[in-house]
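Deliverable D2.4 — example input (structure tokens):
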């Protein structure tokens, strides 16, 4: 299978001098060496390398506000990232293998605050963000002004890593069924095996005992641009889920909690998409949890395709599970995307 990696559009990331650029198909490619060791740490973990005075000062506080910011759309507050801290004196051949590293270096030799981004320096996959600044005040101001860029850069890197892994190891049976029914490429984790097929709808689940991770894909005829706005999206989602994900009783079915839904426009593979995240619940039942979805337009077939991941994990933290499902959404390639890629390859 051809090496592919999803690109998430992050305009602000281009402001960082060392960022790698997407290829002509809109995918970022991760450089790797067979000689580099595998990185340590878990997804969405960030190790901050800074002297204690910096970590406990203005600069450290500004960065910790980013790392500790709650992830939107979860039933209980969970930080976007798990953080750890080591001083420069303890940044050695063991700690430098961490997957996400943020270094803050303060010194009079730096005339202005500037951040660089390096990939796979000591291990793979790895991203090292280094901020140089003449003093803590300027470092704090830089971090605060670039908060969205820093947050987005780490998030997109983690999503890219998971999505890239899914190209090489995924549920093949599910992928074949998606191709057969929707003529799309879509890859999900291999442990999400249980599958239910409906009309223009596929639901896959890992059917766990203490927690359940789910992914579904469905399509609708394109009617208007309003399908990519919050209220119509919720109405369409509730209609589809009521039909395809019922409860144990006739009066029970999945529905959206309209008070806790957030939407925004993003770009996936160079195509417009609407991201929605929020909370779902089972009508007349106590079940519920978080979800995240992408709504995409397939221009070739004049239809809308929705891919969604949702979690049921009572009494458990859900950030990591939902982020894993979210990464799978970025692997979706509609026929429109595939045609664009073939056209670009033909030109080259």
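Example output (designed residues):
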């Amino acid at each position: 299978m051809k090496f592919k990696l999803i690109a998430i559009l992050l305009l602000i990331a281009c402001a960082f001098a060392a960022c790698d650029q997407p290829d002509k198909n809109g995918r970022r490619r991760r450089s790797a060496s067979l000689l580099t060791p595998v990185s340590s740490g878990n997804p969405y973990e960030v190790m901050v390398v800074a002297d204690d005075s910096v970590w406990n000062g203005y600069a450290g506080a500004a960065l910790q506000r980013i790392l500790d910011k709650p992830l939107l759309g979860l039933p209980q507050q969970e930080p976007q990232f798990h953080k750890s801290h080591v001083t420069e004196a303890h940044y050695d051949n063991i700690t430098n293998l961490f997957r996400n590293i943020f270094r803050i270096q303060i010194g009079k030799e730096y005339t202005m605050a500037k951040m660089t981004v390096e990939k796979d320096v000591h291990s793979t996959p790895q991203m090292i963000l280094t901020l140089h600044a003449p003093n803590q005040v300027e470092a704090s101001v830089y971090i605060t002004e670039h908060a969205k860029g820093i947050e987005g850069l780490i998030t997109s890197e983690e999503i890219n890593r998971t999505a890239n892994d899914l190209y090489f190891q995924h549920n093949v049976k599910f992928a074949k069924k998606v191709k057969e029914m929707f003529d799309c490429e879509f890859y999900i984790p291999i442990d999400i095996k249980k599958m239910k097929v409906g009309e223009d709808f596929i639901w896959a689940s890992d059917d766990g005992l203490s927690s359940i991770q789910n992914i579904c894909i469905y399509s609708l005829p394109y009617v208007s641009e309003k399908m990519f706005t919050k209220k119509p999206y919720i109405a369409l989602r509730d209609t589809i889920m009521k039909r395809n994900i019922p409860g144990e009783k006739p009066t029970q079915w999945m529905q959206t909690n309209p008070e806790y839904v957030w939407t925004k426009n993003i770009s996936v593979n160079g195509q417009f998409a609407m991201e929605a995240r929020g909370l779902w619940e089972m009508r007349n039942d106590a079940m519920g949890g978080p979800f995240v979805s992408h709504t995409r337009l397939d221009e070739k077939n004049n239809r809308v395709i929705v891919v969604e991941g949702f979690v049921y994990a009572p009494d458990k933290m859900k950030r990591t599970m939902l982020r894993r499902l979210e990464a799978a959404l970025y692997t979706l390639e509609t026929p429109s995307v595939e045609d664009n890629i073939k056209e670009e390859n033909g030109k080259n």
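Helices lie at 52-55, 58-67, 136-145, 147-168, 172-182, 230-244, 319-329, 335-347.
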